[in-house]
Request: fold
Amino acid sequence: MKIRRIIVHRMRAPLDRRFGWSLNWTDHRAGSLVSVETVSGETGWGDGAVLEPERLRIALGRSPFEAEAIFEELRQPAGLQSRRGATMGGSLDVALWDLQGQALGLPVHKLLGTAYRNRVRPYLTALYRVDSEDLPFALAEEALDWKRRGFQTLKMKIGYGPELDLRCVAAVREAIGPETGLAVDSNCAYDVGAAVALGAQLERFNLRWWEEPLAAADLAGYDRLRQSVRIPIATGETCSADTLARDFIAPRRVDIVQPEVEWIGLTGARRLTALAWDHHVRIVPHNWNTAVRTATILHWCATMPEPEIGLATGNVMFELDQTEHPFRDVALLPVEPDGCIAVPQGPGLGIAVDREMVKQFTVERIVLE
Ligand SMILES: [Mg+2]
Reply:
């Protein structure tokens, strides 16, 4: 099984209604898929941006079973002997694991380790900033709708300034009641002084976690915030596997890490599973783009041991974005009536990618052969 061709599919679609968060507004969705074809006719898929597509050429002519070596060779910047550079090939790495599974007739989770579960409960990501004269009211209405659809944990954006943040969180918490899980994500909007002050006000809302209160590089800030605020602290969606391991998991700097397979691939994901469990840090994977990435994360989550023991466990979960996304469903992964999603059991990622939909939304196609 040799790799003969790699295609990067850059996709884009306009939205009916723009939405925003602390950093920006968007009126479209953009994302990339990578497909890897072998000489013998198999195709593997991965989801995630490829910043320097030409560098993926190093995989041509090689076996998908060299995924780990290729992952290491794609560290950035090129030629640096340091092991600290982020890999440039998370989505390629996932496609190679997909091909390995297809070659062996096994689902990816069986290659990654022990499968502890065959269904995983996601938490909901929505509740972004929208054009409204009364944002707290609009978010409360939306949150109630998601709760009625069966989601048990919701995540909302904050980072609009402490005064508006507090009004938004209060409105949502009141709408959904005390039983439904609620997390907040400020996308690094605050410095540590502002975050400590805001955190004291947020404590009363019984939050599951506070995501990216600070920039990931502000390690001393995370230390101060974590000592000051009685809310579980989460971060990591922008970090390489090495940075997550060194700066956040090994020193137990945060309660939850949220790695992104777009950057760390399944090779990095597999390494972090054992490390995080050993250090009593929970992994809740970040997830943004198509069902190819969701399938990747489902396989990963199947192999995560529970971070806690006891009757109240069941906290292995991942992010499920439900904001408007015209091409998210390039493969079908239905949410079951109780809110869980089944881990695919077919060979590789175990999904059927809708190639017509990929073609329909592709704005640039880069072919390496
Ligand atoms: Mg986030």
In short: The first helix runs from residue 67 to 73. Residues 59 and 70 are 7 Å apart (CA to CA). Residues 185, 211-212, 237 surround magnesium ion (CB under 6 Å). The chain has a mean pLDDT of 95.
